[in-house]
Design goal:
The structure is a single chain. By secondary structure, this protein is an alpha+beta fold. The strands form three sheets. It has a six-stranded mixed β-barrel. It has a six-stranded mixed barrel with strand order 15-16-21-18-20-19. Strand 8 and strand 9 form a beta hairpin. Helix 1 crosses helix 12, helix 15 packs antiparallel against helix 22 and helix 17 runs antiparallel to helix 20. The longest helix is centred in the middle third of the chain and has 38 residues. 37% of the residues are buried.
Length: 778
């Protein structure tokens, strides 16, 4: 019997080649989208779960109250906190501290700038499943000047040579010995590194201080009562550092990637969005199948009637139609695999991932099998039950099935276009917000500024380096600072003259060279700019922003005594800078203090003439080589750096855009097929209308108005759904475009135009056909 079902299915495929192509191709695109997004979602959900101890390892977090009363969570911890917790609480089996580092590594006359150096402790390899492929873990950390490379870094430095025991010079001042080779950390690990150095190179005094510069993880014993432990550790900081009121929290390792430090679903939102898009696109493809199958019912009505007359029961007919549907789904899955293989490299580039199809992954194969069967059953269920219920006497007499079939098809088309219109609105909103971010005035100049990482040689000779650069007329300004002005993360408590109580108030801060505000064209609204770099023993000059003045409630801030952290940095406020965005646009502008104290500088900024960019860059590189001959001039454009801060949003926006276009394409593909069958069913009616004098334009209007009504109806359902989704997306940004109502109307009109253009080919062809042929039809 099953073989017979297959034979009938293949015969029907052959008789209706266009119908079969549209069904298979539409389902294949839907399946391909679903597979690509499933790979992405699986990758996101797999972060950190490969560690054997992942259910026992927790990220340590400090939670505090920001100046505006909002609660914040931070993975940046005091150095002392994590080892102190290990000492105090017997539930802790192990702990490790981490700190991101960087610098120049030299092997002979070759040098490499590394930004992904991890300072850590031996417990890293005990708590996490990072493999040491060469070297002995017992001795790899024996000496403070031992170094571990990853396999890729070892290959980059030494090629096919054995790197073990080789010397590497760090920042042209300290020699390290390679004592281990670690396997490259998996892509789905939140802890990434190219080289590993010992935490102790920072110095015992520093790593035992309460300075907030590290992150930390703890491993609990298997029998530990986690909920009781969470309550127990809350006041660890308060009890041991009374001037710090922050609470201590822990977060399971498996949640670190998808949740923020306050355990709110940050990246998880995108996982849910992508999973929903995958399901939605596949659902649209399934709706196409149902629509086209029920539209084709007129052609199969007689077949069903004859089969019932010769003894076929409804159950057997349902099996036959379901078999055809599942067979279509199998063919579609094969085509989908081809599409995925062709487009996976481009998708990886778009998403900055290294996804691949692993046939050894049983879960993945089972998922594909389940998708195929579900698509076959969902797509074929309604047509199967619909076609099998035809009454033989009626269909053999009239040659067609039930006259009520259009209602369900209308519902399906409305659902399709509801989804499509909602996706158009969401995509347009994401695009507008990203464009807003690109063009938003951040309060400082970001164009034609070259950013160069600071190094020891450049730091030692910065004044001379700056002087030499400014000899060239194409160089408009040179400065340096402790961080990018667009991403200031450092915080310190501030004290000022007239402060009402002893409550600790946190300010963001960064340290700058005296010409910093001039180079970035930041506007002073009160007081004066820095006139010179700060010298040890002199009062410290501070410039604060408007938000800081408002928070301090100072009417005349200039000249007021001010300091951060402790009295050693005491000085006065010399100026007030206009508020500018020193964090990404998903953050409000808070108080910031800027000073010329030189605790450290991490970046050099060079402003150049926009008319002579290549010439200016060559001059900068040559001058850099004079003052830092052992380093590479690893420059970048500052505006591109800022764009990188929003890279995740750009990636998400691009993926949503392309898959929304595919969803609309699949909807139009189904609409095209549906229009073909509907015009075919009305061939005789069209012929009679033309004979009676109806114009082609009137017939086109008659055939398209039904589709147009469905699309207009879809807007009523799409707008509330899109409004909710758009509102949630924009809430992620403190500064956004707001909900733009015109986008809703424009999206509805666009969907209407697309639908009319889709069916226009069929309607024009039917309207211009010879009426004599139409009247001879059937």
């Amino acid at each position: 019997m099953f073989i017979n079902y297959l034979k009938i299915a293949f015969r029907n495929f052959g008789r209706s080649k266009g119908f079969t192509f549209i069904n298979i191709f539409g389902l294949a695109i839907g399946m391909a989208v679903c597979i690509l997004l499933m790979l992405w979602v699986q990758n996101e959900l797999s972060y950190n779960v490969f560690h054997e101890n992942s259910d026992q390892v927790y990220s340590v977090i400090q939670e505090g109250i920001w100046n505006d009363g909002k609660t914040y969570g931070s993975r940046t911890l005091p150095y002392r906190l994590t080892p102190l917790m290990h000492e105090l609480y017997p539930e802790i089996k192990n702990h490790v501290r981490l700190k991101d580092f960087g610098g120049m590594m030299a092997i002979g006359d070759r040098s490499f700038t590394e930004n992904n150096v991890l300072l850590t402790e031996p417990a890293l390899f005990e708590m996490f499943s990072f493999d040491l492929v060469a070297g002995d873990l017992q001795t790899a950390f024996d000496d403070i000047h031992n170094l571990i490379l990853t396999e890729d870094t070892a290959r980059k430095y030494f090629g096919d040579e054995d790197p073990m025991g080789k010397m590497i010079r760090y920042d042209n001042r300290t020699d390290f010995t390679v004592t281990g080779i670690a396997a490259n950390p998996p892509e789905n690990s939140t802890i990434q590194f190219d080289l590993i150095m010992q935490f102790t190179i920072l110095g015992e005094e520093r790593i035992n201080s309460w300075s907030w510069e590290s992150s930390g993880y703890i491993q609990l014993y298997e029998n530990a009562d986690v909920e009781a432990f969470k309550k127990k550790i809350e006041n660890t900081i308060v009890d041991n550092k009374p001037d710090n009121k922050n609470l201590v929290r822990i977060q399971p390792l498996a949640r670190v990637h998808l949740y923020d430090p306050l355990d709110k679903p940050q990246s998880l939102i995108f996982v849910i969005i992508f999973a929903a898009i995958g399901i939605i696109v596949l659902l649209i493809a399934c709706i196409n199948f149902m629509n086209l199958s029920t539209a084709k019912s007129a052609k199969r009505a007689k077949e069903v009637g004859i089969r019932k007359v010769v003894g076929a029961d409804r159950k057997g007919l349902i099996k036959q139609f379901i078999t055809e549907s599942i067979l279509t789904a199998i063919f579609a899955m094969i085509v989908a695999f081809v599409i995925v293989e062709l487009f996976l490299p481009s998708f990886n580039d778009l998403a900055h991932k290294q996804l691949d199809i692993t046939f050894s992954n049983i879960n993945f194969l089972v998922s594909l099998l389940v998708i195929t069967l579900l698509v076959g059953l969902i797509s074929g269920s309604y047509p199967a039950f619909y076609l099998s219920h035809f009454i033989p006497s009626k269909v053999l007499k009239s040659g067609s099935g039930s006259k009520t079939k259009n209602r369900f098809r209308t519902i399906l088309v409305v659902i399709q276009f509801t989804i499509s219109i909602a996706l158009i609105i969401c995509t347009a909103t994401v695009y507008n917000q990203l464009k807003y971010i690109q063009n938003k005035n951040l309060g400082f100049d970001k164009d034609f500024i070259i950013s160069i990482p600071m190094n020891t040689e450049l730091d030692d000779s910065f004044a001379s380096f700056k002087e030499e650069l400014l000899k060239n007329s194409n160089i408009l300004g040179v400065t340096s600072s402790s961080s990018s002005p667009a991403r200031v993360g450092n915080v310190n408590p501030a004290e000022w003259e007239g402060k009402a109580d002893d409550e600790k108030i946190l300010f963001n801060f960064f340290l700058v060279e005296k010409d910093f505000l001039k180079v970035f064209d930041m506007k002073l609204i009160e007081g004066e700019n820095f006139s010179k770099d700060h010298q040890q023993g002199e009062p410290v000059p501070y410039i604060v922003n408007e938000a800081a003045v408002k928070m301090m409630q100072l009417e005349n801030p200039i000249g007021k005594r001010f300091y951060m952290y402790d009295e050693s940095s005491a000085g006065e406020i010399i100026g007030v800078v206009k508020d500018y965005h020193f964090k990404t646009l998903d953050n409000d502008i808070g108080p910031i203090m800027i000073t010329t104290m030189k605790w450290w500088w991490s970046k050099v900024f060079v402003k150049i003439n926009p008319r002579n960019v290549p010439e200016s860059i060559e001059y900068i590189k040559d001058t850099f080589k004079q003052f830092a001959p052992n380093y590479e001039c690893d420059y970048s454009f500052f505006d591109e750096e800022i764009a990188q801060y929003y890279r995740e949003y750009y990636e998400i926006g691009s993926i949503i855009k392309y898959f929304a276009m595919l969803a609309i394409f699949i909807s139009c593909l189904g609409l095209f097929g549906l229009a073909s069958f509907m015009t075919e069913q009305r061939t005789k009616e069209i012929g009679i209308r033309k004979v009676l004098g109806s114009s082609a334009a009137k017939i086109v209007f008659l055939l398209t108005q039904g589709f147009s009504k469905w699309v207009l109806l879809a807007n009523i359902f799409a707008w509330p759904i899109a409004y909710f989704a758009v509102k949630k997306f924009l809430e992620m940004f403190a500064y956004n475009t707001g909900i733009q109502i015109w986008l809703f109307a424009a999206s509805g009109i666009l969907a209407l135009i697309i639908s009319i253009l889709t069916v226009s080919y069929q309607t024009f062809r039917a309207a211009n056909a010879n009426p004599i042929k139409a009247l001879k039809y059937e």
